[in-house]
Amino acid sequence: MTEKQKKELREIYSEFWKTRKGEIDIKMVDFCMKKYKHIYINGVYISCCDLKPSICNCLYYDDEGEAPSKSYESFHYYNMRCKFKLYELSNNYGNLVMCPFYNDTEKLMFLTYSEDPKYRLVTKTELKAINEAIEEVKADYEKRLQTYYKKYSKNIYTMGYWANR
Predict the structure, then answer these.
(1) Cβ atoms 84, 141 nearer than 8 A
(2) Which tens digits make up the pLDDT trace of 67-108?
(3) pTM of the predicted structure, to 2 decimals
(4) Cα separation of 118 and 139, whole Å?
(5) Rounded Cα gap, residues 112 and 115, in angstroms
(6) What are phi and psi of 63, to 5 degrees?
(7) DSSP run (H or E) holding 96
(8) Which of 47-82 are b and which e, b meaning 16 or more Cβ less than 10 Å from the residue's Cβ?
(9) Rounded to an integer, what distance in angstroms lies between the CA atom of residue 52 and that of residue 79?
(10) Between the CA of residue 111 and those of 23, 42, 49, 156, what are the distances in Å?
(11) What are the residue boundaries of the structural domains of the chain, listed by start?
(12) How many H-runs (helices) and E-runs (strands) does the chain carry?
């Protein structure tokens, strides 16, 4: 996004986040700007995914299975699972649509699957841009995992939990 688009997005968030006194809640606006990966398509800002997903140093497993090792492969697998699902135009829940993020704004949207006709369907070109943005965040996350493992591998641990009891 360009600086002009970032400024406009900041203004959109500023409309929603107010303090009790009616002033702009700058901390919350900054949080939203840093929390989500936004892309600008066809005059609309879309929140695709978390910009910097957290890294988990505890690898949980059920006590009926074998404990995972503390290797990079186990660490990588545990942190990557279920985090970066690419969107499809439709699935069992319906079609991929853009929904207003706050107060029915038409400028800031998030993605969900729905059959509701009041929401706008995502086009193939928009889907491609959204999935590219997710892949970009995924690549950055994998670099963060490598760096984390190199620095803090001694802090990674496994923890079992009771299953079927």
Answers:
(1) yes
(2) 888 999 999 999 998 788 899 999 888 999 999 988 778 899
(3) 0.86
(4) 34
(5) 10
(6) -75, -5
(7) strand 94-100
(8) bbbebebebebebebeeeeeeeebeeebbeebbeee
(9) 12
(10) 29, 15, 9, 34
(11) 3-161
(12) 4, 8
